[in-house]
Amino acid sequence: MATDEELCAMQKLFKLYNIEYVNDIVLSALELLYYILRIAAIFAGEGD
Predict the structure, then answer these.
(1) Which of 24, 43, 47 is nearest to 35 (CA)?
(2) Does residue 36 surpass a pLDDT of 70?
(3) Which of 13, 28, 37, 46 is 20 to 30 A (C-alpha) from 19?
(4) How far apart are CA 16 and CA 24, in angstroms?
(5) How distant, in Å, are the alpha carbons of 29, 33, 34, 35 from that of 47?
(6) Cα dist. 20→11, 17, 26, 29 in Å?
(7) Given a cut of 70, is residue 1 above it in pLDDT?
(8) Taking a C-beta distance cutoff of 8 angstroms, is the pair 10, 2 a contact?
(9) Using one digit for the tens of pLDDT, what is the confidence trace for 2-30?
(10) How many whole angstroms separate alpha carbon 28 and alpha carbon 45?
(11) Do the beta carbons of residue 40 and residue 32 sit within 8 Å?
(12) DSSP of 15-40, one letter per residue?
């Protein structure tokens, strides 16, 4: 079995992993929004 210190370290690593996972999802969503807005800007510019 793991010691209390090891369990605490594993919990911290798991929490950091989850934070990184959520950050990756948010970053991907923002990147997708950026590309959508770029495409919209291109089409808006063609209408002039």
Answers:
(1) 43
(2) yes
(3) 37
(4) 12
(5) 27, 21, 20, 19
(6) 14, 5, 10, 14
(7) yes
(8) yes
(9) 899 999 999 999 999 999 999 999 999 99
(10) 26
(11) no
(12) HHHHHHHHHHHHHHHHHHHHHHHHHH
Place 48 in a pLDDT band, splitting at 50, 70 and 90: low
The single-letter code of the amino acid at 15 is K
Structure tokens at 19: 């934070």
Evaluate if residue 47 carries a pLDDT over 80.
no
**16-31 residues labelled b (16+ CB within 10 A) or e (exposed):** eeeeeeeeeeeeeeee
Reported residue count of the chain is 48
